[in-house]
């Protein structure tokens, strides 16, 4: 049987690490989306204030099975 998947892009944040930022995005998405399949980290960056790191950010593409 053929399947179709939808992909959305999210940005997760953490004050501790990029790994926790990516996990936050996936965990939040799993609260409202069913059948998550793949999460791909596409970019990492940091939010800074006065030269200090305030947050790690991970841009994540998440795919899930498309149901109509």
From TrEMBL:
Cited Gene3D superfamilies: Flavin-binding protein dodecin
Superkingdom of the organism of origin: Bacteria
InterPro entries: Dodecin, Dodecin-like, Dodecin-like_sf
Pfam families hit by this protein: Dodecin (PF07311)
Protein name, UniProt field: Transporter
């Amino acid at each position: 049987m053929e399947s179709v998947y939808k992909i959305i892009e999210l940005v997760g944040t953490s004050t501790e690490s990029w790994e926790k930022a990516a996990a936050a995005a996936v965990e939040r998405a799993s609260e409202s989306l069913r059948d998550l399949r793949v999460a791909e980290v596409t970019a990492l960056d940091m939010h800074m204030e006065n030269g200090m790191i305030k947050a790690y950010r991970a841009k994540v593409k998440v795919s899930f099975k498309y149901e109509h």
